[in-house]
């Protein structure tokens, strides 16, 4: 699931942050910030 999340992080993530940096970061940290 992690791989898929990273692939479609921008469209799938509820984070309206322009850059996919925060999205990838969430996956890398294991969903630490994803808890939001």
From TrEMBL:
Listed Pro residues bias regions: 11-22
Protein name stated in the entry: Uncharacterized protein
Region listing for Disordered, in residue ranges: 1-36
Lineage: Eukaryota, Metamonada, Carpediemonas-like organisms, Kipferlia
